[in-house]
C-alpha cells in the first residue's frame, strides 16, 4: 500500500485545525466529563491558549502549548467522553483525533474516586495507541472519601505511566510533564495491558490483521481496526477510507470484503 497517503500533518491541519510547529509534539487530553481536564490544560498551558470550535462542529475546542526540558508540546483539550464508540459528536471527535490525528502522547485524565468507571475510557484509548499517560486527578477529593490509589501498582498493571495530581493546586503537574516528555521522547517502551477477548474473537482478529496491514499499513493499530470491523463499525471504515486514502483506492469495499 502507499503509506504516503496517510499524511498526519495535513490531517491535523485540515480536519482538526491544528498546526504544530516543526519538532513540536502533539499531546491529546482525554477523559470523562468533569474530571478536571480543562483544569489540567489551563495549569499546563497558562495563557498560551487558543480556543474555538472543532472544524464543522458546534463543540468547543482548546489548544495550547507548554515546554519541558527544551521541548515544545501542543496540548489539545478533547471533549469529555465516557467512551470512544462514536455514539455522539463529542465521542466522534475524541475518537477521530486519537485515531487519525495520531497524537504523540494521549493523557487520559481519570477521577481518583471513580477509577472503575473512568478506566473504561483509558482501556479504549490503550487499544488505539501505546503512547498513553494516565493522570489520576482529584486525589484530594478521593482522600476525603478515604480512598487511596496505588499509583505504582496501577502503572505496573496497565503498563503505562500513571501520575497522581490535584490539578486545582498544581500538585503532581511537574511529574505529569515529565511523564509526557518521557513518553514522547520514547525514553521507555510502553507495554499497555490489553483486554483479551474470547477465543473466537481473538482468532478472527488474528486472521484479519494481515489483511488490514496489507490495505492500510500500521498507521492505525491493526488490532483495533480488526476489533472495530468485527463490531460492524461501518462509520469507521468510511472514515479510514476518507482520511487515509481520500476515497481513491476503493479501500472501503476491500476492508468490508476482508471481514
Ligand atoms: N478538588 C479538586 N477539584 C478539582 C481538581 N481538578 C479540577 N477540579 C474542579 O473540578 C471541576 C471540573 O473541572 P474541569 O477542569 O472543568 O473538568 P473537565 O474535565 O474539563 O470537564 P468537562 O470539560 O465538562 O468534561 C472544576 O470545578 C474544577 O475546579 C482537583 O484536583 N481537586
Ligand atoms: Mg473541560
Could you please describe the fold and organization of this structure?
By secondary structure, the protein is of the alpha/beta class. The chain folds into two domains: 3-184, 3-Layer(aba) Sandwich (Rossmann fold), CATH 3.40.50; 199-258, no CATH class. The chain is 45% helix and 17% strand. The chain contains eleven helices and seven strands. It has helices at 8-16, 37-45, 89-100, 115-128, 139-144, 151-158, 173-184, 199-216, 222-230, 234-245, 251-258; strands spanning 25-31, 49-53, 60-68, 71-77, 105-111, 132-137, 162-164. Strands 2-3-4-1-5-6-7 form a seven-stranded mixed β-sheet, sandwiched between helices. α8 crosses α9 (222-230) and α8 runs antiparallel to α11. The longest helix is centred in the C-terminal third of the chain and has 18 residues, at 199-216. It is globular and about 55 Å long. The model has no long low-confidence stretch (mean pLDDT 90). Bound molecules: guanosine-5'-triphosphate and magnesium ion. Magnesium ion binds at residues 37-38. Residues 31, 33-39, 80, 137-138, 140-141, 166-168 line the site of guanosine-5'-triphosphate.
What secondary-structure arrangement, pairings included, does this model have?
Blueprint: H1 8-16, E1 25-31, H2 37-45, E2 49-53, E3 60-68, E4 71-77, H3 89-100, E5 105-111, H4 115-128, E6 132-137, H5 139-144, H6 151-158, E7 162-164, H7 173-184, H8 199-216, H9 222-230, H10 234-245, H11 251-258
Parallel strand pairs: 1-4, 1-5, 5-6, 6-7
Antiparallel strand pairs: 2-3, 3-4
Helix pairs in contact: 8-9, 8-11, 10-11
Bound molecules: guanosine-5'-triphosphate and magnesium ion (MG).
